[in-house]
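User: I'll paste a sequence; please echo it back and then give the predicted structure.

Assistant: Echoing your sequence first, then the prediction.
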Amino acid sequence: MRALTKLAPGPGLELVDRPEPVCGPLDVKVRVLRAGLCGTDLHLEQWDDWAAATVKTPMVIGHEFYGEIVEVGEDVPKGTAVKVGARVSGEGHIVCGHCRNCRAGRRHVCINTIGIGVNRDGAFADYVVLPATNAWVQPEWIDPDLGAIFDPLGNATHTALQWNMVGEDVLITGAGPIGVIATAIARHAGAKNVCVTDLSDYRLDLARRAGADLVVNVGQTRIKDAQRALGMREGFDIGLEMSGAPAAVAELLANMNHGGMVAMLGLPKDPYPDRLGPGHHPHDHHQRHLRARNVRDVVSHVLDAGELRDLQERRLVGHHPPFPRRRMGRCFRGSSLRRVRQGRHGLELTGPWGDRPGVGVEGVASVWHNRPPTQCSWH
């Protein structure tokens, strides 16, 4: 099968032929129909300090996906929705089930978590194997593109609903896919004002379309000025940090009301400073540092409310590079964009492409369409 793989430590990825994964007795084998590109994949492609300390090569990356079950392990309980032909999204965090957190129902903070596409072979391939308990069967009406981004949708939902948002002023730093989805969740949850910050006008426009009352390009305007534009006097009640940028964290805290509530999900590439600014004391705010939450949060908080049908009408996904083609490296756009060239083992992502934005981008997320090679075309 085709698989986008980190063959050795260092920047870049290679598209290679690998044997199909073997389905274990409690596993399912899924034919991948869609695969979403996550910020984690960009860290792995760039091979930053986090990736070097976390990943053992060779490794097939990718953990956001939607596909069709083609094989079910012999010990998987019969008579359930998990069966051959079912369409599923994958829960990318495989937990042990016996640690203290797992036994208390807090599986998302299992101390023995194994990440699909990080600690074991992932979904940027024709097939992926995962425990049957990690396969989330989707209703027939779910669009495959939406099914592929249940992971960021679950993260956004979990982060946004850490606090009661009804009537509150909410600040979201970072308008990437999770930040934009969190904007829609905050609006649905009853927030009074939703303000979103980023450095990209394109992303800020997506946040505006998702329901933001005010968007701020922090390269040009300070958040304090945004407070005045919204008629606020004492700072934001709730802050959602989605960027991982130390400067964004500092400015978020500088614009929180005393006793404000902060949830931090962004994955920092650089360390936070020892002091986040004058006048800040950790006890001024209630803070929660979050780990990724499983996709079941989406089902309990969003799907049952019927909101996925509304999200499906929004253009959350618009970048549809085929898999594989020579130009698919343009998914890794922005600062992490890489040129694709023919390598010894297949298609290799190397070198800077330039500072042009990705082509055909008209939504929050990038999702690969997995088709047989003869049916691939660039959108």
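Confidence is low (pLDDT under 50) at residues 281-285, 323-330, 333-365, 372-379. The longest strand covers residues 27-36.
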